[in-house]
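Aim 2 progress update. The chain analyzed this quarter is reproduced below.
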Amino acid sequence: MDDGDLPLPAAPGSDSQQAALNYSTLASAVASANGPLPDPGISSTETLLRNIQGLLKVAADNARQQERQINYEKGTNSNMVYLLSLAQYYIYLAATHKS
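Predicted structure tokens:
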């Protein structure tokens, strides 16, 4: 299983944001990334390191998703500011050009 197979956390502000931050969700993602059963030849230290690595991958995916959401919201806000400015301009034109 590669990084692309891990579930992506929810975007900030969405209804399922709590699920993205839920540790059991992270743990299940790590378990699925590391395989169903631990290899009996692997030490507990190696298992711990693999689990930490899996958690870091999930955290990195979460950070990337949050960054995408922030950039999307910035773009949406910029568009809204532009539209409001345009509306104000047209209102001004309408008010100053009355006959």
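The longest helix spans residues 44-96. The chain has three helices and no strands. These observations will guide the mutagenesis experiments scheduled for the next reporting period.
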